[in-house]
Design brief:
By secondary structure, the protein is α/β, with parallel strands linked by helices. The protein is built from eleven helices and seven strands. The chain has one domain: 3-Layer(aba) Sandwich (Rossmann fold), CATH 3.40.50. The chain starts with 5 loop residues before the first helix and ends with a strand. Bound molecules: S-adenosylmethionine (SAM).
Length: about 280
């Protein structure tokens, strides 16, 4: 499936589910019943994969009764993990139609469809009423969105007063311009990284109180070193989502991300904020 939207077109190549099923079989995992662990190398489409999702979930003030929004939910790995971990209801929204289709299919395979659902749409104009979520999170999405102020305002609209927002994003560092392709963009045309400072200011101006603001650069470098060591000793890298989704583009995209992290061009940040 392809899309006229250049961001969605970057992510959707068609045939994703068939490629995923083949990868699961090659891992010795039954595609009909893969479990959260079997899917984890593929359905966590962000830096450090499931490790980063587990850490973000540790920071979530989510309760079982909460309605939680996942912005840019991809093929749904973080949403299924968060719903299972916290017992809450999670709704994902994503621009890329093929990702929504795959996310729904995998969620049925894990029998989580009563608590996890997915909508195809734009995070800048969401089809949800005001104050319809207790909390929201987003993993590695805002670098595709030019209008960060509009994004923060739209999230503010759908959150309850006092609701929480957790962002795990890639920020522009001081080491110079990002090289392309990356996992999120073929070129600077669809890549919009803010600095950490711009992110903080944007959130405050949109009506959030910042509760914590951290960088996970050292964890990212450590994860890269561990992955390299595994591959050099003949194993599979722990995080294979970029290869699954981008195929031939993946090697160059991951090399540019790794060089960007090492050179301080890309800085991973985690932000917990509250809607005032
Ligand atoms: C790098 S992937 C991350 C997916 C998911 N958050 C995860 O960590 O597995 C970025 C995702 O953001 C989605 N995206 C980009 N711009 C968006 C927008 N304006 N509204 C909704 N989703 C968007 C893309 O379709 C893609 O699925």
């Amino acid at each position: 499936m392809t899309s006229a939207d250049p961001v969605a077109a970057h992510y959707a190549r068609g045939g994703l589910l068939a490629r995923l099923d083949a990868a699961l079989r090659a891992d010795g995992v039954d595609p009909a019943h893969p479990g959260i662990e079997g899917l984890a190398p593929y359905d966590q489409f962000h830096g450090r994969g499931i490790e980063a999702t587990e850490e973000l979930a540790d920071l979530m003030p989510a309760r079982a009764a909460d309605r939680v929004l996942d912005l840019g939910s991809g093929i749904g790995g973080p949403a299924r993990y968060v719903a299972t971990r916290h017992g809450c209801r999670v709704t994902g929204i994503d621009l890329t139609p093929e990702f929504g289709d795959v996310a729904r299919d995998l969620t049925r395979r894990l029998d989580l469809q009563d608590r996890v659902d997915f909508v195809t749409g734009d995070a800048l104009a969401m089809p949800f009423p005001d104050a319809s979520f207790d909390g929201a999170y987003s993993m590695n999405v805002s670098m595709n969105i030019a209008g960060k102020d509009a994004l923060y305002r739209e999230i503010h609209r759908v959150l309850e007063p006092g609701g929480w927002l957790l962002l795990s994003e890639l920020a522009q560092g001081e080491g110079g311009e990002v090289e392309y392709p990356t996992p999120w963009a073929m070129s600077a045309e669809t890549s919009f990284l803010s600095t950490a400072q711009q992110t903080r200011r944007g959130l405050e101006e949109a009506g959030y109180e910042i509760v914590r603001f951290d960088s996970s650069l050292s964890q990212a470098l450590d994860f890269a070193a561990r992955s390299r060591a595994l591959v050099e000793s003949g194993g599979k890298p722990p995080h294979r989502a970029v290869m699954l989704i981008h195929g031939e583009l993946a090697a160059a995209a991951m090399r540019n991300t790794s060089r960007g992290l090492n050179a301080g061009r890309i800085v991973p940040i985690e932000v917990l904020a509250r809607r005032r």
